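Illustration: Porin family protein.
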Amino acid sequence: MKRVFTAILFVVALMTATATQAQIKFGLKGGLNVTNMSFSTDVIDKSNQTGFFVGPTVKFTLPLVGLGIDAAALYDQRDAKVGDEGDELTLKQRAINIPINLRYNIGLGSMAGIYLAAGPQFGFNIGDKTFSFDDGINYDMSKTNFSINVGAGVSLIQHLEIGFTYNIACGKTGEVNVLDVVDNTWNQVTKGRANAWQVSAAYYF
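Result:
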């Protein structure tokens, strides 16, 4: 949790540094994600994760025309079934994700516009860390994750935004470990990564 507060303080400091020259809007953001899990070996079968995210968001426009930054603190919940038929396990990932995106806005009149956005995302696991199968296989989730967001969207009536984002994992999301029954030790078999498609809606006050 200490890292969560550190990242939040960084966002607040960034906003404060440019507050005197920027137009700031606060709002609420939520949406759905579909995550493609991939492993470096075929130790376990997997399916796409589905889930949702919600939390406060803020955006501000810098003096340069059309250039701005948005940030959010999102509670993210994802579930996925992994394993062979008859030995399936549901992974439940709970995290606080903090995306910070540089964005470029193109106005289409006073009531609408489109934007392009990209930037880093910091994730902090606040749920279970380890999930165990019956056959001596564990899936251990990482405590923290780093990824990159690339997306676009539309702005409507100066308050509502609809966005589409592809989240690219930069490192392992978790790892599969198998118990060695001979010496009773855990051996890492493969690392897992999770990229996600996201659709979101945000309302700014």
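Reading the tokens back as a structure: The domain at 2-204 is CATH 2.40.160.20 (Porin).
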